[in-house]
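Anyone up for a design puzzle?
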């Protein structure tokens, strides 16, 4: 029987996003997509794609941080068309504690002098 670890609930805090071009995969439960991020924050990510974003706002998102996979649950909060591309914002809603640590480390690397956060 697989061992299930508890997920951390992510509080609805607003945090500054930092530009980041990271390959990201996401699934709405029926299809797997692969695109790139435009920016990232401790609470979410902006994804740019050439296709229409998934209709179901609930996603499983995964990407690599420091050579380690990060997998988390997210919800599409907004969608914008930008010429031929689409951009959409995904709010992180739950993740494993070790994924939170890797994400925090990335945020420190992107913006080490962010007020209110120790790096």
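Challenge accepted. My sequence:
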């Amino acid at each position: 029987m697989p061992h299930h670890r508890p997920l951390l609930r992510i509080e609805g805090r607003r945090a500054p996003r930092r530009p980041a071009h990271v390959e990201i995969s996401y699934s709405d439960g029926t299809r797997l997509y692969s695109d790139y991020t435009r920016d990232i924050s401790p609470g979410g990510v902006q994804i740019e794609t050439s296709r229409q974003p998934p209709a179901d706002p609930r996603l499983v998102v995964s990407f690599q941080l420091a050579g380690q996979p990060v997998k988390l649950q997210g919800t599409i909060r907004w969608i914008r068309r930008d010429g031929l591309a689409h951009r959409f914002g995904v709010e992180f809603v739950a993740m494993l504690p070790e994924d939170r640590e890797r994400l925090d480390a990335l945020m420190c690397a992107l913006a080490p002098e962010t007020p209110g956060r120790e790096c």
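A detail worth pointing out: DSSP finds one helix and eight strands in the chain.
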